[in-house]
Amino acid sequence: MPTITKAYKEVVPALRFIGKRYTDADRLHGMFGHKWGEWFQEGYFTLLENLVENLPDFNKQSIGLMREDENGEFEYWIGLFMPEGTPVPDNFAHVDFPAGELGVAWIYGLEGEVYMQEGEAAKKLEAEGISLKNSKWCFERYNCPRFTEPDSDGKIILDVCFVL
């Protein structure tokens, strides 16, 4: 069973998210894992990282960005947060975010347990006094090494973040 080990606010500069947008129609067995496989196989993350010279480590963290759009359709984006104004390559889309704050919760557990914990993360952040009432976007941030290097119990940390 996953646990939330940390909940806090994080200040971020204006960012441009660059990636690809998916919907429920793109799911395979209810998940988007095959799309992540495509990203790694096709080198999309490397392509984006190479858009900016000396890209800060913050921008090299893979992101699964989510929201319900104005028509009530679920959107799932895979990509990277890039510096404001970064040019968008062909066949990619973008979302611009102003400078602001994130509500961040660290989900600690085995890899198969840490996903789809947005509801629990939201409860924990609200309990810590971090209001999510104006949040329209949330995302999973795959932070290295917290996510990529399991501890001695085989557990990792997935960051679940809400744009405040």
Detailed description of the structure:
Helix content is 16%, strand content 39%. It has a single domain (3-163), classed as Alpha-Beta Barrel (Multidrug-efflux Transporter 1 Regulator Bmrr, Chain A). The chain is built from three helices and eight strands. Strands 1-6-8-7-3-4-2-5 form an eight-stranded antiparallel beta sheet. It has 164 residues and is of the alpha+beta class.
Please give a quick description of this structure.
With 164 residues, the chain is α+β, with helices and mostly antiparallel strands. 16% of the residues lie in helices and 39% in strands.
Features:
3 helices, alpha+beta, Multidrug-efflux Transporter 1 Regulator Bmrr, Chain A, eight-stranded antiparallel beta sheet, single chain, 164 residues
Q: Determine the CATH superfamily.
A: Regulatory factor, effector binding domain
From the N-terminal CA to the C-terminal CA, the straight-line distance is: 27 Å
The second-level CATH architecture is Alpha-Beta Barrel
Oligomer: single chain
Mean pLDDT: 95
Structural class of the secondary structure composition? alpha+beta
General shape: globular
Helix fraction bin? 10-25%
Q: Into which percentage range does the β-strand content fall?
A: 35-45%
Main beta-sheet strand count, sense and barrel state: 8 strands, antiparallel
- Tell me the number of strands: 8
For this structure, the CATH topology is Multidrug-efflux Transporter 1 Regulator Bmrr, Chain A
Unreliable stretches covering 5 or more consecutive residues? none
Give the C-alpha Rg: 15 Å
The CATH class name reads Alpha Beta
The ordered H/E elements are: EEHHEEEEHEE
Domain tally: 1
Order of strands, main sheet, comes to 1-6-8-7-3-4-2-5
Report the total helices: 3
